[in-house]
Design brief:
Elements (H helix, E strand, L loop, with lengths): L4 E7 L6 H11 L3 E7 L6 H8 L6 E4 L6 H11 L4 E4 L11 H8 L5 E5 L6 E2 L3 H18 L11 E4 L15 H12 L4 E5 L1 E2 L14 H23 L1
């Protein structure tokens, strides 16, 4: 039997996506454990999860007072039992078919596999504002952090559990928590492999919680830059 793979889904108002994403994960990943952490969704997400989980085949945590992607993810990690641990954004079900390739790559002497838009074969088909800022922010990360990693911000990954023995997730903020984690994984000498994927325009500015408004979009950008600086400071200390 193949190694158990735990996939974490962090949900907040994902009624339009959650069922299809779970279905795609189940089609593409053998020996799968799904861990769902919901941050008090109000759009019917909870009811859909309960309908799908009548036989308790998923681990589900309902949080009523917390609403943070990073802390939801860390809670999910705590609940996993698989030898491999991964994450996918709940509104990106089209990426689920990449997991067999990621599992195979993980078995080939790699410690963590990251889906990357900036290696050969990858791409970004979202609106110009998002593609431009993402591309140049990742170039900025490479220059400041001085690593060969090309995509710090896709955050779609699969890793071996053993990494957690030496590197932990700092559970605050939005997606920038993964940026710091990936940097520390590299510094600890774990082998990182980036696999190309193309981010489709389906996750557009309307559906994306990280870009629900220009003000929030630029606020999160500032938070990412602050996280880079604090990552370097913590590393030096």
């Amino acid at each position: 039997m193949s190694s158990k793979t735990s996939i974490i889904l962090c949900t907040y108002n994902e009624a339009n996506y959650i069922e299809n994403t779970i279905s795609e994960l189940e089609k593409n990943i053998p020996n799968l454990e799904i861990v769902i952490v919901d941050d008090f969704s109000s759009d019917g997400t909870v009811e859909i999860i309960k309908k799908l989980n009548q036989n308790n085949k998923y681990k589900v945590i309902y949080r009523k007072k917390s609403r943070s992607l990073a802390s939801a993810f860390v809670r999910g990690v705590i609940e996993t039992t698989g030898e491999n641990i991964g994450w996918i954004d709940t509104n990106m079900s089209e990426v689920a078919p990449k997991f067999p390739e990621m599992i195979q790559a993980l078995q080939s002497n790699n410690d963590i596999i990251v889906l990357s838009r900036y290696v050969e074969g990858g791409g970004d088909n979202r609106i110009l504002l998002r593609t431009f800022t993402s591309k140049y922010f990742n170039l900025f990360c490479r220059a400041i952090l001085r690593t060969p990693i090309k995509d710090y911000t896709s955050s779609i990954f699969l890793m071996k559990r053993k990494i957690l023995d030496e590197v932990t997730f700092l559970g605050y903020g939005h997606g920038e928590f993964f940026l710091e984690f990936l940097y520390n994984v590299h510094k600890k000498g774990f082998k990182i492999k980036e696999i190309p994927y193309i981010q489709n325009k389906d996750e557009d500015i309307i559906n994306s919680k990280s870009a629900a408004s220009l003000a929030k979009f630029f606020y999160l950008g500032i938070m990412y830059i602050i996280r880079i600086i604090s990552t370097l400071v913590r590393r030096k200390n």
